[in-house]
Specification:
The structure holds 2 protein chains of 2 kinds. Chain A is an alpha+beta fold. Chain A is 24% helix and 40% strand. A 6-stranded antiparallel β-barrel of chain A has the order 1-2-3-6-5-4. Chain B is globular. Classes of the chains: A alpha+beta, B alpha+beta.
Chain lengths: 144, 161
């Protein structure tokens, strides 16, 4: 039987998640997002240096996953991201959802190291997301 | 070689907009025709559904000609889970529709070679041409059907390339 009892929206789970992330030595991650393409034909074939912006999200927490991943030996990490911070950036960038923010993200930088997003999950309580969990893989060095 | 790859992609892209303008994808904040080059986009952890993804594979070169001819193998990968309104039960039909669109996009088997590094793109002297696509068997992964088609794309190297 489903629970249909009405509940007032509360920010308590988000505040609790933020407090836990901060207390567990939470840090800042930078989401490298792309600007909207204007010149389609050149950007579609990799000719235009697309405009990038680093969007900070904080507090976040990195944790290394058990090394079951084998493909090319890169380490895999899970990034726990504060939903409050993501919401702020969604409002700042005037985006419809967190999914669209992550879809625009080319790489995530934490402590100078770039990571690629493998998958995204979220944790909810009382119908509100309080934590995003990004599965990350270490990015390889790119030419300067 | 890069000009041939760019020209091939742009030819398919232009043809797709005429064949099925509804097939689009939102990439980097822009709505584009539903075809993209894998190596010119952010790395995918999973291919997007209902769009054509071009992946460049082998390269062969024939230097025993007046102009060097190159042949590059292009794999066109596409997959679908069907539509929500049919609960995914139309995924077979959706894949067939993509098969037909691809066959229509491929013809005619040539396009002018352009240099897209110039603005506007500069026409070159030769054409890019290709042979008939070779379709792979359908791969079924639970609710997703995928297929790829391989095309050999030929071009002559011109001065300055």
């Amino acid at each position: 039987m489903s629970d249909t009892a009405p509940r007032n929206p509360s920010g308590a789970p988000q505040m609790l998640a933020d407090a836990l992330l901060r207390s567990a030595s939470g840090t800042t991650a930078l989401l490298r997002v792309t600007g909207t393409n204007t010149d389609t034909s050149m950007s579609e074939v990799g000719l235009v240096a697309t405009t990038f912006a680093d969007v900070p999200v904080s507090p976040v927490l990195m944790r290394k996953l058990r090394p079951t991943w084998q493909e090319n030996g890169e380490s895999k990490w899970e990034l726990l991201v504060s939903a409050t911070s993501v919401e702020q950036q969604i409002n700042t960038l005037d985006l419809p959802s967190a999914q669209s923010l992550f879809a625009m993200t080319l790489a995530v930088t934490v402590a100078g190291q770039d990571y690629l997003i493998e998958s995204i999950a979220s944790n909810e309580a009382f119908g509100q997301v309080y934590l995003y969990r990004l599965l990350l893989r270490e990015a390889r060095q790119q030419a300067v | 070689m890069q000009n041939a790859k760019d020209s091939f992609y742009m030819a398919l892209r232009t043809r797709l907009t005429e064949i099925n303008p509804q097939r689009t994808i939102l990439v980097r904040g822009a709505v584009r025709p539903g075809i993209l080059v894998e190596e010119a986009e952010a790395p995918f952890s999973q291919f997007p559904s209902d769009v054509f993804v071009l992946r460049w594979l082998c390269l062969a070169v024939d230097m025993n000609l007046d102009s060097t001819m190159t042949g590059e193998q292009c794999e066109i990968v596409y997959q679908t889970c069907g539509t929500q309104s049919f609960g995914g039960l139309d995924r077979g039909r959706a894949l067939s529709a993509m098969d037909e669109e691809l066959m229509a996009m491929i013809q005619p088997f040539y396009t002018p070679k352009l240099n897209y590094a110039a603005t506007p793109p500069a026409a070159m002297l030769t054409r890019v041409f290709w042979d008939e696509p070779v379709f792979s068997p359908i791969v079924t992964q639970r609710d997703r059907l995928s297929r790829s088609a391989t095309v050999l794309v030929y071009s002559y190297e011109e001065q300055g390339e």
